Amino acid sequence: MSPRKDPDPSASVPSFYGAELRFLRESAGLTLDQLVEGSFRGAPLLSRIERGELGMPMDLAVHIDKRLKTGGFFERHYEAVHKARLAGHPPYFAKIPDLEKSATTIEDWAPFLIPGLLQTKAYAQSIAQSTAAWASPETVEERVRARLARAEFWKHDNRATYWGILHEPLLRKPLLPPKEMAEQLVHIAELMRCSRTVVQILPESETDHSLMMGLLKILTFPDAPPLAYTEGVHSGQIIDYPPLVTNYRRSYDLLRAAALSPKASLAMIEESARGYRDEAQQGD
Length: 284
Hints:
Layout (H helix, E strand, L loop, with lengths): L12 H15 L4 H5 L6 H8 L7 H11 L4 H4 L1 H9 L9 H7 L2 E6 L10 H11 L5 H14 L10 E7 L1 H4 L5 H15 L4 E6 L12 E6 L6 E5 L4 E4 L2 H17 L3 H22 L1
Parallel strand pairs: 1-2, 2-3
Antiparallel strand pairs: 1-4, 4-5, 5-6
Helix pairs in contact: 8-9, 11-13
C-alpha cells in the first residue's frame, strides 16, 4: 500500500479547503465512500479534493455540508476556492487544469508553442511576457506559477497517458536563447522516457495535414464523454458535442499517422538539444 498523502494546508487555498474537509470527515468517523453516499459523486473525486488536486463541485459542497453539519462552510467558501484555482489562468482556460488531472488520456497538437504541460519555467516566462506585454510583472509571475503548477501532473502515479505532437519548426525556430532552449528540449526528452508519455514530431514538409488551423487538445475520461479544446490568441473553447469531438479525434489520428515515430522524434529532439547546447558553449 502506498503511503497516505496528507495535504499541506499552507500550500494554497484549495489545499487548506481539502485539509479541512479531511479533518472534518475523519473527525466524524466517515470513510470517503460513506461521505459521498447519496451524492452523484465518487470517492476518488473526494480523495483528490482532500489533497487539493481538484475543485469541489457545488452540488458536492452542499451535500458535504449537510452530512457533516458544517453550517454551510464548504458551500460558503466554494467561490473563494474556485477563484484561487483560476488564479493565473484566463477564464476560457480555467477548467482545463482540473480536466487534465482527471483525464485518462491527453492528446496535444502544438503547431505554434510547446504545450503547457511540457514547458520549462524559462519557456513559460517567455510566453507570458510576449503575450501580455502590457501586464505587470506580478501578473506575469502569477501566470508563470499557474503554468508550472500544471506540471505537477507528472508527479502523480495515476496521471493520464500523454500524447503530444509538435510541429518541427518549434525545434528549429527557438523561442529561447540556446542554453535555455537546450534545457527545454532535454526536459521533453526526459518526459518521453517516462511511462505513458509519447511525443512525436510532425515534419515541416507536411504542409497539407489534417489540423492546419491551430492548437488542439483532446481529453478522455473514465466516467465521462471525451472533450476537445481549441484555442486562439485571446480565446478558447471546450467542445463536448459528440459528432464534433469525433471529427477532431479523427483529424488527430490522421496527424499522428503523418508524424515521425516516437523513436525518430526523440532522436530529432535530442539532436536539436545538442545543437543548442553546442551553440551556447561557443557563445560563452
